[in-house]
Automatic annotation (TrEMBL):
It comes from Streptomyces pratisoli. This is Response regulator transcription factor.
Length: 217
């Protein structure tokens, strides 16, 4: 049998941590090896503990779970991240994905969803709690039914081409050769992409490209 998935659990409520730990440690393929009571401590723990998965509460002192997720995504791009929260909130959901999390689990149904979410994260598959999926589809259908325009395309077709090539690992010169433009023009487009999407680096561009379906994970 393969070794259990090593988990870092961060929540500022000791009782919540204890309950979640009981759920996880009851599974033979999952084990909590580190705990933190705020986002900053979670980041510090992840620097030293050999963990595969971080489960982060959103609302924590010093550093929120979303802030910790952004930092961990930079420090440990191999680390899988789940957000565990009491907030059934569409904005938080999208912010969590933007921060690098691959799943969003509600505390109210953690006993039902958390184990499945952990296993999905390790398989590098996204986990969306059923309510979020239903809400997103309903909002889309309502928008169409009411004749409202769909959200504007965030990037141009040229930017999308460049984003895909950047995410595939091509250099600016290689992209310029493929698209028959100068490397300087590629750099300008890439800078525009980072600013427009609120991202910081190639890693975040790659994650965005995966979520947008431009490349396979």
């Amino acid at each position: 049998m393969s070794a259990p998935v090593r988990i870092l659990l961060a929540d500022d409520h000791a009782l919540v941590r204890r309950g979640v730990r009981l759920i996880l440690d009851a599974e033979p393929d999952l084990t909590v090896i580190a705990e933190a009571d705020d986002g900053a401590e979670a980041v510090a723990q992840a620097r030293t503990a050999d963990v595969d998965l971080a489960i982060l509460d959103i609302a924590m002192p010093r550093q929120t779970g979303l802030q910790a997720a952004r930092e961990l995504s930079r420090l440990r791009p191999d680390l899988r991240i789940l957000i565990l929260t009491m907030y059934d909130n569409e904005q938080y959901f999208f912010e969590a994905l933007k921060a690098g999390a691959c799943g969003y689990v509600l505390k109210s149904v953690a006993d039902r969803d958390l184990v499945e979410a952990c296993r999905a994260a390790i398989r590098d598959e996204p986990f969306i709690y059923p309510g979020a999926e239903t809400t997103l589809i309903r909002k889309y259908l309502d928008r169409v039914r009411q004749g409202d325009p769909l959200p504007a395309r965030p990037i141009t077709e040229r930017e999308e081409e460049i984003l895909k090539l950047v995410a595939e690992g091509h250099t600016s010169k290689e992209i310029g050769d493929i698209l028959v433009i100068s490397a300087k023009t590629v750099e300008r487009h890439r800078a525009n992409l980072l600013q427009k999407l609120g991202l910081r680096d190639r890693l975040e561009l790659t994650r965005y490209a995966i979520r947008a379906g431009l490349i396979e994970p």
